[in-house]
Amino acid sequence: MAARVLQGPEFRHPVDKDTLGQFFFNNAQKYSDRVCQVDGSTDQSETYASVKVRSIRVALALQKKRITSADVVILCSANTLDNTIPLLAASYLGAKVANLEPSLSVRHTQHLLALVTPKLIFVEEAAVGLIEESLISSSFDTEIVVFGQSEKYVRFSDLVVPQEGEEEFRPVEVDVEDVALMLFSSGTTGLPKAICHSHRSFLWATLQTYQGGVRNSVFHFTSFYWMTAWMMITCCFKSGSCRVFTRGFDTENVFRIIEKYKIPYLFTAPVLTYKLTSFKDASKYDTSSLEVVMCAGTPMAPSQIQKMNEFFPTAVTILCCGMSEIGVVSSFDLEHDRELIKRKYSSCGHPAAGVQLKIVDPDSEELLPPNQKGEILLKAPSMMKGYYRGDASQAFDKEGFLKTGDIGYYDEEECVYVIERIKEMFKYQSWHIIPSSIEVVLLEHPGIKEAVVFGLPEGENGEVPAACVVLKEGFTLSGEEIDAFLKERVADRERLRGGVTFVQVLPRTPTGKVVRKEIRDFVINSKTA
């Protein structure tokens, strides 16, 4: 078959002409009597009417602080009922919104704050010290508002008291092409950037997700540092459904919440599915409401997808591919692709609505046909505007397609497969080695919980494959046993000639991605020590 550009389906409905603030405001009014959000950690809930009133009050308070569309407002908090409110309030004013993660280091936080120079930060009580230390050397003035108790700063609770003019308040009018939301890139291959979405581009991204089938109540663990949390809340606002969240991941609590709230739709990282399928008391809970488990962010072994489908017989577990720069890249249509989902365990589905996708040779940029691996390039109405205060010209090819830095391919049925980051591939004796291809095989071993593969320098051979492995509880394995397991399942060039290092835990970014470079450096240093 000839090389071609894949085209996702057309949007069934045009995106609203509203700003992001108007979208939230109008839908909160439309669905006022419905439950909007549930904190699964505390079992507290809130209606759309309550969300609207509280966010209006905070918006009025921010107006008194002279927050406008020219300003950046940042949040640094784990998931609570409260942390949604200032995000909506800032969007009503057309301000640019960004989010930090309380688990970040001071150095990382300093870099992100310097990127966007916020005028105001809403921060959870436990992370006040992080923000204070991160702002010490800053050259900009930032006001702090605290979720919780504080004698030094304004408290969030002080902003949600009744305000004059609540009934008359309406979101301000701003250009829908203005920057509305900024998301930080993962920083796995360099310093993070602030990815800018306009009101229009992000609402296109919401429509992509909604058209793909996310229309019911959703359960997720991600904070607003991740794009997925944003997608979940905007899809819920569009459909008037409920968002259930927790502050962290506790396996038994996940099962309890699915049973209590009759969850139909669960979003989770692939690594967390292993905790679900190893939970010994799962039979105590009724999970029959579950229809879809969507996984994204990292590769997932086909055997684990099968195990999830067996573990949750009423649900289908699917992989999807998304990027902060564009929203949903590809996914299976939950209404029309049931037969394909059963056959294509490793695929991320078809290009999402409005998405153009092509596979090109990373060196020549030549368009590649089906089943040939190359870099994935994308174009869509939901594409980012660029990087905040940064040059994004090198991120696009001459036809305006976004260079993802991901290696993948598509098959004869136009199903997309994402394999690896370009910068994570390496060469052994002139062969391209794709780490995730070996990792998937390693995870088939019953004793291996997690595995990361990387290249170690070895003179004229280039780099030899090596691995860091986390074993499951109760298992003991040697590097020789793992190599013998691989020998029967991979090409000779993919064997772990660089050895196996056993660790208790793997370092990850706040978005759950393994920091491969940090692991590689650790192994190299340990071998030379």
From TrEMBL:
InterPro entries: AMP-bd_C (IPR025110), AMP-bd_C_sf (IPR045851), AMP-binding_CS (IPR020845), AMP-dep_synth/lig_dom (IPR000873), ANL_N_sf (IPR042099). Residues 438-513 form the AMP-binding enzyme C-terminal domain. It comes from Zophobas morio. It is found in: Peroxisome. The keyword S-adenosyl-L-methionine does not apply. Belongs to the ATP-dependent AMP-binding enzyme family. GO terms for cellular component: peroxisome. Keywords: Ligase, Peroxisome. The keyword Ligase applies. One of its GO terms (molecular function) is CoA-ligase activity. Its main location: other. Residues 24-388 form the AMP-dependent synthetase/ligase domain. PANTHER family: AMP-BINDING DOMAIN-CONTAINING PROTEIN-RELATED, LONG-CHAIN-FATTY-ACID--COA LIGASE. This is Uncharacterized protein. It holds the Pfam family AMP-binding_C.
